Amino acid sequence: MKVRWKSRKLANGMAALTVGAAVAGVVGVVGIGSGEAAPVSVTLNYTCPFPLIGDQTLKVKVDSEFPDNAVAGQLSPAITFKATVTVPESATDGLAMVGAATIEGTAKAGATLKYPVDKTLNLGLPLTVPVTPVPPSGTFDIVTSGKAPQVNFPSPGTASVTVGNFSTTLTPKYPDGTPTDLGTFTSDCVQVPGQNNLLGTFEIKSGNPTTPPTTPPTTEPPTTPPTTPPTTEPPTTPPTTPPTTEPPTTPPTTPPTTEPPTTPPTTPPTTEPPTTPPTTPPTTEPPTTPPTTPPTTQPPTNPVEISYGVTGKTFIKKLGAELILGPGSLDAELTASTGQFSAGLTLPKAKASFKLFGLLPATATVKLTPTGPVTGTLKSGIVKSNVKVDVRLVDIRVLGLPLLASDSCRTSQPADVNLVSGPGFDPATGGKLSGSYTLPSFTGCGLLTGFVTALTSGPDNPIEVNLKKK
């Protein structure tokens, strides 16, 4: 079955990219000190929610260096850090399905720095997620790096750094650099419970606070120069002459009163500048053209097509018969910005075996025809769908003998079938949908109409459908 998603679906790859940048920022906080550094590394798993595909688990490896001679009372130099994220194949498939060629954005990482004496510094580090190419398939690595801020530790002792959660804002883009239908979205990622998120510890050594402060204050150069110049000649001579003579009186009176204030201010403001330029630009072109074009053009131009094979089964509760469904096909169109989709479903005739009155072996050939498209939503990895199906009994045999052969024996109205995805459903690969429905009464079965209705019609008939991407 073919599935055409009219829009694009985001994948875990976006998340993976962000994790790298975010956790890298956390690590940057740890790199403090001015001497030889000891390398440290930690690998953590995060759960990140994403539009359409729901929660994804990502693994991030963080590498940095701890100082081995951090000194109390001295400002630490900034050091570099690095984080490597391996984007899984399923995430790459999701990005490819959206049509994304690159992904980029920003992140904010959290970390906790504890240092003597009983000091805790909660850090929220802003980071940039670099433009990263997305391959057509397989896994790929995202590497991000940065520098830590400088820190001045007040006391010696042991310091520790733990890595926290992070938030990311991402934009997947087409090859031409324009955003996909998903636009820009934010995902708040949380560490998987039960992990050791301690990046490491390091020692802060005692400094020598007495020597530097005592040198500058004890010197005596400041006493000699200040006493001589102020008392002798500079204060007395210059202040008396300039204020009393003629410079202050003449210049201030002439320029302000004569021509500058009266002539220039009146002419320019009233005549041309205010009237002509302000009216034309705002009303004509800038506001009208740019806002209207982008929203209308982009969504319809890049449909994504996906093909699924459909298999499944349903159990007609009243008859006690299992009906095997498929193999069939499904073609869907998804609008990524809203998560709504519409799909065409085709299924072949199905055959059921049962025992009439619990004794007589019987078979029935059933034709299932959707009366309209499958409609529904895909949000946070969960599919909710509905389809209305016309059910026809084209052949009924008892003990191998034909009891009914007709194309007009069908339900009086379409069966209303609701299906919801189960755990592990991934639009990029497929999964299971399940639900139940009521089988309406039958019509057009001739003399057997009442018999067929009594034998089959009723509520709570379970159904299961499996989708597999082709």
How is the topology of this model organized?
Layout: E1 2-5, H1 12-30, E2 37-50, E3 54-67, E4 70-71, E5 80-87, H2 89-98, E6 102-115, E7 119-133, E8 140-147, E9 157-173, E10 185-191, E11 198-205, H3 211-218, H4 224-231, H5 237-244, H6 250-257, H7 263-270, H8 276-283, H9 289-301, E12 304-316, E13 321-335, E14 340-346, E15 350-356, E16 360-370, E17 374-379, E18 382-398, E19 401-405, E20 410-411, E21 415-421, E22 430-439, E23 442-443, H10 449-456, E24 458-469
Parallel strand pairs: 4-11
Antiparallel strand pairs: 1-12, 2-3, 2-10, 3-5, 5-8, 6-7, 6-9, 9-10, 9-11, 12-13, 12-24, 13-14, 13-15, 14-17, 15-16, 16-18, 17-18, 18-19, 18-21, 20-23, 21-22, 22-24
In short:
The protein contains 10 helices and 24 strands.
Task: Sum up the structure in keywords.
alpha+beta; ten-stranded mixed sheet; Immunoglobulin-like; disordered N terminus; twelve-stranded antiparallel sheet; 470 residues
**How many beta-strand runs?**
24
Which radius of gyration do the C-alpha atoms yield? 38 Å
**What's the level 1 CATH class of the largest domain?**
Mainly Beta
CATH topology of the largest domain: Immunoglobulin-like
Q: Class by helix and strand content?
A: alpha+beta
Separate helix tally: 10
Number of domains: 2
Main β-sheet description: 12 strands, antiparallel
Our measurement of the CA-to-CA distance between the termini, rounded to an integer number of angstroms, reads 8 Å
Overall geometry: elongated
Q: Strand-residue fraction?
A: over 45%
Name of the CATH architecture of the largest domain: Sandwich
Ranges where pLDDT stays below 50 over 5 or more residues in a row are 1-35, 210-301
Mean pLDDT comes to: 74
Oligomer: single chain
Helix content percent band: 10-25%
